[in-house]
Amino acid sequence: MFTGIIEEVGTLKGIRHGQKSSVVTVGGKKVLIGTKIGDSISTNGVCLTVTKLHKDAFDADVMPETLQRSNLGALQMGGRVNLERALQLDTRLGGHIVSGHIDGTGSIKEYRKDDNAVWITISAGPELLRYIIEKGSIAIDGVSLTVATVDSGSFQVSIIPHTGAETILLEKKLGDTVNLECDIIGKYVEKLLGLSPKTQTKQSNLSEAFLQENGFF
């Protein structure tokens, strides 16, 4: 598990493509401190397992599923990535609980300066927007952010100068792809209540009485 608070920006130092999967070599410094083979490092929000350690980098296997669901497959040599080590139980949770399992991708639609902050508008499909709510949490390329607004085709976040300086979010160009991980709680609630897109009907059984009976009030 991760917090979505980026520890450093690393670079892609090597990539070896297999038939469907890849092995990446990611350069970093801070995230290598105390790291062992088998540990997890969030790379642009994707949970990768360290398979080999170098002096200033680590190797990780990237499965076909990961390449299909994330922007890691589009990375070029020297590309910059957000990095975070897995959280420890004595760590302050400055962001929110992030699993490192990407739900899908969105694309940068607009940047807008607002005094010292920058508003970012990201377009996403309905299969992701159903889990994105105003004032809720979202991880964008592994960065924990608060959702400011949501409409039928996109959502907005606002980032402070520190976040802009310590991550790669403001390095993206319009149209670039970003990894998205929606808040995990909403997905579990939907599953337990039988409200997934495959089973949900036009008339929902969810009511105040139902929630009271199941201990929500």
UniProtKB/TrEMBL annotation:
Transmembrane intervals: none
Keywords for the protein's UniProt record, in alphabetical order: Repeat, Riboflavin biosynthesis, Transferase
Superkingdom: Bacteria
Biological processes annotated in GO: riboflavin biosynthetic process
InterPro entries registered for this protein in UniProt: ATP_synth_asu-like_sf, Lumazine-bd, Lumazine-bd_dom, Riboflavin_synthase-like_b-brl
Pfam families according to UniProt: Lum_binding
UniProt GO molecular function: riboflavin synthase activity
Catalytic activity annotation: 2 6,7-dimethyl-8-(1-D-ribityl)lumazine + H(+) = 5-amino-6-(D-ribitylamino)uracil + riboflavin
EC numbers, comma separated: 2.5.1.9
Residue ranges constituting the Lumazine-binding domain according to the UniProt record: 1-96, 97-193
PROSITE patterns for the chain: LUMAZINE_BIND
Gene3D superfamilies the UniProt entry points to: 2.40.30.20
Lumazine-binding repeat boundaries on the chain: 1-96, 97-193
Pathway: Cofactor biosynthesis; riboflavin biosynthesis; riboflavin from 2-hydroxy-3-oxobutyl phosphate and 5-amino-6-(D-ribitylamino)uracil: step 2/2
EC primary class: transferase
Quaternary data: Homotrimer.
NCBIfam families linked: PRK09289.1 (NF006767), PRK13020.1 (NF009566), ribE (TIGR00187)
Protein task: Catalyzes the dismutation of two molecules of 6,7-dimethyl-8-ribityllumazine, resulting in the formation of riboflavin and 5-amino-6-(D-ribitylamino)uracil.
Name recorded for this polypeptide: Riboflavin synthase
Organism in which the protein naturally occurs: Trichococcus shcherbakoviae subsp. psychrophilus
